Every structure is written in structure tokens, then in C-alpha cells.
């Protein structure tokens, strides 16, 4: 897999120490055919590229069938002017993917396009269903033939088999059947539909652009295309957009919403707002709280770019220790390149990061990062800094230790691979070679968001999930890992 990770040397990949997001979705509805519609979706997907880099796709309709193009790779690799010119219509949806369920093959790329009673429909899904295998077996027993290994196809089948063909009834019936996390954008030949799961685990928002309605995983995508943010789709809400306007259907909403707290820690772009809170502000507050909980006697504060930078700034302000740039990130490494040999493991990190020797030489550093998954990369970065002359490296993490797997669309590795599940903080400190190590408390993380704890799914930290989950080893039900 290549989403948000570069395969340098087996387990020593630079971003193997980060959980991986599943997908990003984007959709737009125009009352009339718009030659620029597919390009608007293209730019929206560009803004959501951080949520998945393995495949990308766009589907459009002008009211008579659905035309689509999808491929493996980044948005810029999958589309060009010629392809976008052929994608004409008045409704369009797009998807960027990191494979959690199913392998990274073209057939698993989205949007998924299927036939149903009233024509064609396309589905783009961000999330993961915990009962997908059960539903799939039921459908297969009824004669359904599946073409992919993704749980999103289960959703497409449930919608397509609605007896009346009514898309609104189909969406409601589908929600009653599936369990798990999902932000869905569904396109028929005359409507654009947005669906957010009853617990609101995955984000989805609504905007308006030149008289068009827009749906997106994050508000940063609305900003990119020049759309005005209207509101977040509520947990359990279905939004139907067509020539009659926009209609909201409120299904049964769980009393305790469970937004994934890792959106605030790592996944969402800092310039996005989710459910009313700005991501940059939350991360900055997390850094301030981290400084209060785990002070350090140091000369400068640095962040691991890019995800640790904002929290490092907050830590510096609260602690009174100056912030500086201690690590430079190489932004021009592609998704694939010649891998260094096993004898040169640390080269993998140095291809991605370089230490600012003039800044850190002889200094005591506070190195702030957002999370540690397996610990291998953190150890390499600490060594990189010390090799560059840092006298001490005090690692501070702006989230608690990750001790449990995620079942709702985030690839956090299996529990046996999580260093936080296997070792205590002092053991982790020794493993990564830090002079000290401090994690933000769960209470401190929640406080930084401005929301109550009941707002979030925090299963990866505490092992308490908002619904029953499969046994360990069955996180992604169709994928052999």
C-alpha cells in the first residue's frame, strides 16, 4: 500500500509510523450541463489528496447514463485535460482512496458505477463497514455477483436492489442495514445524495458554488474550488439534491455521536473545520496542553513536519521555549522510487527528512510529533537529530499511546504491531532512543478539541468502541493482510 507512506525499507518506511486514512469524497450538482464540472471535482480531489493516494476517480452524468474514469495513482497521475474534457455533465462525484478493504487494484477504485431499476448510479464511500461480510454473504445467497473486494460494493448493491427504485427509500433502507462508519456520496442520473452514518464517525460537509451544491469530506476542498461552506451534514442525515432543490432526511440519530478523534490529531488538513472546530486551532491547543502536562528543560522546540508542526508551535508558546525549524521535509519524492538497501536503513528517513545542523547542533531539543504507531520511524528521527549534533532529544507526542486497532476506516496496524499496546512509556523511550518521552493525556486531547468526550470515537486509545466490532485480525473484512 502506498497511501501516505513511502516504502523505503520494509518496516522502516518514513510514514509507517502514521495511521492511514481511508478515502476522500467530493460531489457537485448543477442545474445545467457545465463543461467545467469535472475540473471542479478534480480540484476538489486535489485538496483531499492527503486522505488517499492509491487511486482516484470521477463519475459524471448528463441525465442519460454515467460516464466515468478512474485509475491507480495520484489525482494528477490519473487525469489530464483530454480525459476531463470527455467527462461532461451536470452532476459529478469523485473519490481518492487508500485501500483498507480490498487490495489496491483498478477494479477496487471508486466511484463504483452500477445499474439499478431507474438507470445507473455511482457510489463514493469513505469509511468501513463492520458487518459488510455478513451482508455480502446474504446478497450472494440471493444471487448477487460481486466484482470487487471492497465493502463499498455492498452499499451499491443495497441501494440498487430497492424494489421501488426510489433513491430516497433506498438510502434509508441501506442505512438501516449497514453498520460502521460511512460518509457516502451517491449519484443517480438526476440526483446527488450525501449520507453520514448515525454516529458521525466520518466527516461530510455541504457547500454552495455558483448556484451549485457541493458535498465534500472536508471544508478545505470547498475553499479550494471557491465554494461557500454552508454546514456539516449531521450524523444520520441524508441530503438529496436535484432540480427540486435540496432536501434533508433525518434518520434515527444516535444520542452519542462518535466523530473519529484522529481527524483532529492527524487526518484532516489544518485549514479544515469539522463540526464547527478548526483543525489548526485544535492542534495548537493540543500542543499547549502537552507543554503543561510534560514540560522539558530544553533550548528549542521543533516539530516533525508536517503533522507535528502546529502542535510544536503551541508547545513552544506555552512553555516559553523558542520554536524553530529543525527538520526539513523533501516534498519532491514521488510515490515510487528506487529503494535503499537493507544495509542502509536510515537512508530511508534521510530521503524524506534532513536535519538543520546549524539550528540544532549542541542544543537540547523538544521534538513534537502527533502520534507513534510502531516506533521505528521515531527512533530513526531521534538518531538523525543526534547524528546532526543535538545534545538531547525530548520527544513529545500530541496524542495518547495508540493501543488498539481501528475498525472504522483507519489503518492503525494490528494490535500486535502497535508499540503502545506492547510496551510502557519508559520502554518506548528506550526503544526510540529519546532522552525523555511524554504523551498527551486523553483528557488533554479531548480538551483541545473544545468538545466533550462523548462527541468522539476514541477506540484506538482506550479500546471502547461505539458499536460491536469484529475480533482482532478481522479489521478489514475482505482483505488478507
Low-confidence segments, given as residue ranges, are 1-16, 472-481
Task: Please give the count of helices.
Answer: 17
Number of domains: 2
Name of the CATH architecture of the largest domain: 4-Layer Sandwich
Shape: globular
Structural class: alpha+beta
Query: Mean of the pLDDT scores?
Result: 88
Gyration radius (Cα, Å) is 22 Å
Give the number of DSSP strands. Answer: 23
Distance between the ends? 11 Å
- CATH C-level category of the largest domain: Alpha Beta
What's the CATH superfamily of the largest domain, by name? Aminohydrolase, N-terminal nucleophile (Ntn) domain
Helix content: 25-40%
Strand order of the largest sheet: 3-2-4-1-10-9-11
Here the CATH topology of the largest domain equals Glutamine Phosphoribosylpyrophosphate, subunit 1, domain 1
Task: Give the topology, please.
Layout (H helix, E strand, L loop, with lengths): L22 E12 L2 H11 L7 E7 L4 E7 L2 H4 L2 H6 L2 E9 L14 E5 L2 E11 L2 H10 L10 H9 L6 H11 L2 E9 L3 E5 L8 E5 L2 E5 L2 H7 L2 E5 L4 E6 L2 E6 L8 E2 L1 H6 L5 E2 L2 E2 H15 L6 E4 L5 H11 L7 E3 L17 H6 E3 L1 H4 L3 E6 L6 H12 L4 E6 L21 H4 L2 H8 L3 E4 L2 H8 L6 E2 L1 H4 L19
Parallel strand pairs: 14-23, 17-20, 20-21, 21-22
Antiparallel strand pairs: 1-4, 1-10, 2-3, 2-4, 5-6, 6-7, 7-8, 8-12, 9-10, 9-11, 12-13, 15-16, 18-19
Helix pairs in contact: 1-7, 5-6, 9-10, 9-16
Amino acid at each position: 500500500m502506498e497511501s501516505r507512506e513511502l516504502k523505503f525499507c520494509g518496516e522502516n518506511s518514513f510514514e509507517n509510523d502514521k495511521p492511514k486514512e481511508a478515502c476522500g469524497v467530493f460531489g457537485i450538482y448543477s442545474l445545467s450541463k457545465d463543461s467545467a464540472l469535472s475540473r471542479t471535482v478534480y480540484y476538489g480531489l486535489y485538496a483531499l489528496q492527503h486522505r488517499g493516494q492509491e487511486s482516484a476517480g470521477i463519475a459524471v452524468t448528463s441525465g442519460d447514463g454515467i460516464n466515468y474514469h478512474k485509475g491507480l495513482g495520484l489525482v494528477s497521475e490519473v487525469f489530464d485535460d483530454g480525459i476531463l474534457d470527455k467527462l461532461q455533465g451536470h452532476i459529478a462525484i469523485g473519490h481518492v482512496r487508500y485501500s483498507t478493504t480490498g487490495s489496491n487494484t483498478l477494479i477496487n477504485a471508486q466511484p463504483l458505477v452500477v445499474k439499478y431499476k431507474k438507470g445507473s448510479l455511482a457510489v463514493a464511500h469513505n469509511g468501513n463497514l463492520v458487518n459488510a461480510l455478513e451482508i455480502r454473504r446474504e446478497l450472494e445467497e440471493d444471487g448477487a455477483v460481486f466484482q470487487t473486494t471492497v465493502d463499498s460494493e455492498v452499499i451499491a448493491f443495497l441501494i440498487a436492489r430497492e424494489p421501488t427504485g426510489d433513491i430516497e427509500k433506498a438510502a434509508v433502507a441501506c442505512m438501516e442495514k449497514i453498520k460502521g462508519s460511512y460518509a457516502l456520496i451517491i449519484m443517480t442520473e438526476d440526483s446527488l445524495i450525501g449520507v453520514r452514518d448515525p454516529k458521525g464517525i466520518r466527516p461530510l460537509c455541504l457547500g454552495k458554488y455558483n448556484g451549485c451544491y457541493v458535498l465534500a469530506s472536508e471544508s478545505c476542498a470547498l475553499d479550494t474550488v471557491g465554494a461557500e461552506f454552508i454546514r456539516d451534514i449531521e450524523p444520520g442525515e441524508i441530503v438529496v439534491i436535484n432540480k427540486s432543490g435540496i432536501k434533508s432526511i433525518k434518520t434515527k440519530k444516535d444520542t452519542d455521536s462518535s466523530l473519529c478523534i484522529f481527524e483532529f490529531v492527524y487526518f484532516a488538513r489544518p485549514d479544515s473545520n469539522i463540526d464547527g472546530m478548526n483543525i489548526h486551532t485544535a492542534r495548537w491547543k493540543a500542543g499547549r496542553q502537552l507543554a503543561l502536562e510534560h514540560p522539558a528543560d530544553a533550548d528549542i522546540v521543533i516539530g516533525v513536519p508536517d503533522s507535528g508542526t502546529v502542535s510544536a508551535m503551541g508547545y513552544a508558546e506555552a512553555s516559553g521555549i523558542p520554536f524553530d525549524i529543525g527538520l526539513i521535509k523533501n516534498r519532491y519524492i514521488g510515490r515510487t522510487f528506487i529503494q535503499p538497501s537493507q544495509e542502509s536503513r536510515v537512508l530511508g528517513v534521510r530521503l524524506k527528512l534532513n536535519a538543520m545542523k546549524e539550528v540544532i547542533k549542541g542544543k537540547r531539543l523538544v521534538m513534537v510529533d502527533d502520534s507513534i504507531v510502531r516506533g521505528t520511524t521515531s527512533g530513526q528521527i531521534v538518531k538523525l537529530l543526534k547524528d546532526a549534533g543535538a545534545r538531547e532529544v525530548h520527544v513529545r507526542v500530541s496524542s495518547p499511546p495508540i493501543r488498539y486497532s481501528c475498525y472504522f476506516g483507519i489503518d492503525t496496524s494490528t494490535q500486535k504491531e502497535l508499540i503502545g499496546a506492547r510496551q510502557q512509556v519508559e520502554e518506548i523511550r528506550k526503544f526510540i532512543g529519546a532522552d525523555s518521552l511524554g504523551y498527551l493525556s486523553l483528557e488533554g486531547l479531548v480538551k483541545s478539541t473544545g468538545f466533550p468526550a462523548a462527541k468522539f470515537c476514541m477506540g484506538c486509545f482506550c479500546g471502547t468502541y461505539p458499536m460491536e466490532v469484529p475480533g482482532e485480525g478481522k479489521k478489514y473484512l475482505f482483505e488478507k493482510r
